[in-house]
Amino acid sequence: MNFKELFDNLTKIRTMRTEEKISRKKKEERSKKESVVVGNNVGPNGEVVTLELVTPEIAAEWLKLNTKNRKMKTYSKDKYARDLKNGRWMVNGSSICFLENGNLADGQNRLKACVDSGASFYTVVVRGIKEEALDTIDMGNSRTVADVLSFNGFQGAQLLSSTAKRVLTTTTGKSDKRIAYSTNEILEEITREDRSEYYKSISKFTNNIYSEYKAYSKTYLAAAYIIIRTLGHTEEEVQEFFEQLADKKAACNIIRGLRRRIMKVEDCKVVSRADKFKFLIYCWNEFIQGNKDKEFPSKRIADGIMFI
User: Fold this and answer.
1) Model pTM greater than 0.90?
2) What is the dihedral of CA 225, 229, 233, 234, to 10 degrees?
3) Cα angle vertex 294, ends 293, 299, to 5°?
């Protein structure tokens, strides 16, 4: 090799090394702003991340590895099962996690929902998590349904969310049970073709009534309004009922009886929210059937009463 060839080779080597240094420096600068992918699907401590299809059979086997976990939340499991069964489940980045020893670390409610619903689902799976990481799982602030509604441009998201839950529990006859509804179920309820217009007007309606009568929360007033309107009753009928409810000198005897029953002045008993809502349903049913002069009963209203 002559001198010129040697010089050219050295120059190429220096150029390559310079380019490598520049490239490495750029990567270091970029890593300060961006996440670093280590070995594609391998974490810094050897954790392995995959996207997998979980069948009910697989879920049942994985649940056998559930030896160290929190008590299962039935209401969460049921919520997930409804979403799976009705095709609402979507991959959102939430993962099923396993410890280094193979035991299940997170995801028991989703897996049990899969078994109960008989529906398979895709999910991120992380294997090889260190046991000390258990203390950090689910420690962040959960995104509420109201947060999602706000993100999607809905006004008065908190009232919409709470009202939709109350409408769902009332119309399904489960007012006295603790039920967790998924974000998709709430969105479906609010955007239902036969109710969406009523949901848009609940803020104005409840503000007018609540400013005069605070025995019922805005959520309960709004839920009653939506259910009654969905049943086909006119705006005038609804307004007449609730305006009398807000009037201390209501002309209607059944409504005056409701107000007295709620206040319980004679024995100072506290009336639960569930009972108050049953009172409201009973009162409306008598009112709309023309029994406006009827005395409000002093006995307990039966569970499961529905608006007519």
Assistant:
1) no
2) 90
3) 155
For tokens 């529990």, name the residue: 169
Range of the domain at 103: 48-132
Contact 55, 63 (CB under 8 A): no
Q: CA 185 to CA 228: how far, in whole Å?
A: 20
93 & 66 share domain: yes
Spatial contact of 199 and 140, defined as CB atoms under 8 Å apart: no
Distances (CA, A) of 43 to 30, 47, 99, 199: 19, 5, 13, 46
Instruction: Specify whether 56 is located in the same domain as 83.
Output: yes
- Residue 241: left if φ>0, alpha if ψ -120 to 50, beta else—which one? alpha
Q: From residue 53, give the alpha-carbon distance in Å to each of 70, 124, 151, 268.
A: 24, 9, 29, 58
> Residues 222-264: pLDDT tens digits?
999 999 999 999 999 999 999 888 887 777 899 988 888 887 6
